[in-house]
Amino acid sequence: MIVLLTDFGLDGPYTGQVQALLHQQAPGVPVVSLFADLAAFDIQGAAYLLPPYTQGFVPGTVFLCVVDPGVGGRRPGVVVRADGRWFVGPNEGLFAILARCVGQIECWQLPDAVHASASFHARDVFAPVAARLARDGKEVGERVSVETLLRPDWPNDLFRVVYIDRYGNAVTGVRASAIPDDAVLKTGDYLLPRARTFSDVGAGVAFWYRNANGLVEIAVNRGSAAHTLGLRLGTGFRK
Amino acid sequence: MIVLLTDFGLDGPYTGQVQALLHQQAPGVPVVSLFADLAAFDIQGAAYLLPPYTQGFVPGTVFLCVVDPGVGGRRPGVVVRADGRWFVGPNEGLFAILARCVGQIECWQLPDAVHASASFHARDVFAPVAARLARDGKEVGERVSVETLLRPDWPNDLFRVVYIDRYGNAVTGVRASAIPDDAVLKTGDYLLPRARTFSDVGAGVAFWYRNANGLVEIAVNRGSAAHTLGLRLGTGFRK
Amino acid sequence: MIVLLTDFGLDGPYTGQVQALLHQQAPGVPVVSLFADLAAFDIQGAAYLLPPYTQGFVPGTVFLCVVDPGVGGRRPGVVVRADGRWFVGPNEGLFAILARCVGQIECWQLPDAVHASASFHARDVFAPVAARLARDGKEVGERVSVETLLRPDWPNDLFRVVYIDRYGNAVTGVRASAIPDDAVLKTGDYLLPRARTFSDVGAGVAFWYRNANGLVEIAVNRGSAAHTLGLRLGTGFRK
What we know:
The structure is a homotrimer of 239-residue chains.
Chain A: E1 2-6, H1 14-25, E2 31-35, H2 43-54, E3 62-66, E4 77-82, E5 85-90, H3 96-101, E6 105-109, H4 121-136, E7 142-144, E8 158-164, E9 170-175, E10 185-187, E11 190-192, E12 206-210, E13 215-220, H5 225-229
Parallel strand pairs in A: 1-2, 1-3, 3-5
Antiparallel strand pairs in A: 4-5, 4-6, 6-7, 8-9, 9-13, 10-11, 12-13
Helix pairs in contact in A: 1-4
């Protein structure tokens, strides 16, 4: 299976162009878009979503990960093998948190793109590599140190909103296991106690909870946390 | 085929997580999202869309239907077999109108979710059941009375807007066969005569018509009925 | 492969209904949505996107192209074979620019829809034809002159915005090969020089570039050209 995590949107045309290429170059391999609405240009935020949302997939799964404001410039492309799963994309920090979280990891740098467009390496460079990984399961590129993926200046948990879903729930870059269950989170003037799930609090009540992928998520039962609490991508909070 | 009707949105990550699981547990079975933008929390509105938009699919089709504000609470999950098609989802009224519309119907209650997350039963409970139904075609759970699906207090036709599409057309919960062809509908200060289709009226003219799935739909030719008439989800009308 | 270019949106229910029908009538054929967010009612704008975004697909690819405000009226449906690829949709100008750009082209008119709904010929007429073309690769309908596709009054390059993507980049109806590389474009009070790609200019700087499909596109590095420059669908510019 090839799984897409991008900031392309689904409606058109970028995800469709990538899917079409994958169907042609890796026939019969299912292609699923996991995120098409990662925040444009926010590589750091995406880096904290990557480990929790890609864990649990079977070995051999290929993740095509593209938040790429530097496309056409000098940032290198990489292939990462982490606990048997493959990741392909531009190396500007996107795989930095993943590299801290997994057991076994290897890394290859892709050659410079020669016949690629200057603005769509997802289609012209990364998707062909993803298709080849899905077909052959053999690494591509020149072996490089995992150090090239790392961002030592980034914390293990990021205390800000990194994603807002269709309901207005705010996903953060903090693992629920990193804070106590009885932590009360503070954002702006609001105090947010923990709850197990939505229906455990009254309608309109704000809370935080361990979401279905293990991250701290801020929510309002039968309402929008983004709207009610004024949360946006990048809004910080503390415990 | 497995068909999704949800309020998850497509962009990420919920539909993608469900699709990935379905591809793994029911390999080779096509997965199609029919609605990913059902109104969040509006179980009743979705219940009136279910029968017209799921009719005509071949026997054996599995519909995964999730509008689930009560997730993680005590509401039971159900499997419904209606005229040879399968439906899986939380039982808080979503299948109430379907149960009135079909010839042959049976119902099973799913066991309590033990190893599921508290907030994503679509992925952890309902999708594995849908995959199994698509593979085996055998019922799952404990047989219960169809009565458990019903909502006797809900009318056969719901005179309000239950869905607004990308063009601003307003789909209602009323079957076109339930009102006369010459009915003039009233919403706010507007009077809406019937037309056969868009191009039968002038640009900018508001009308109602029998939509391609048999429901009363309010539209404006080459314009947005939602914008022009001030329609929102839940806006009522009368004949 | 069947590729969709429509103004339906993906979330629901129109694209899903078409996909379900295609999976049933052309089992095993991959279906990809390339554009689901073409501007509603803007046939001319879509006509300039069609050639650059459908080139490069292998012969035999079937494109289902629907921007169809005249649905249910007298506009005919057509099948077009252009350089070995198939196109199906309503003939109100959508294929006019394609017909000028390709080497070998043939055209067939579809019979009047008898058993179709009055508002959803994509599902009831064009999708079954697309499925049949994907299965059999044989033409459908009555051979007609390619003249029926043409719009002699339309220019070869359209100096207005025809699509705005998720980042706020504005795609135009002008081929980059039709203007000099050193052209400075003017829109409103803004002067836009050319750049090769985003990272070649500073953050917040506006420019035009040859996009990954060969069209002139107006962009702002790490920003939204639509927002920064006040561009909308239809906004004109000059060189």
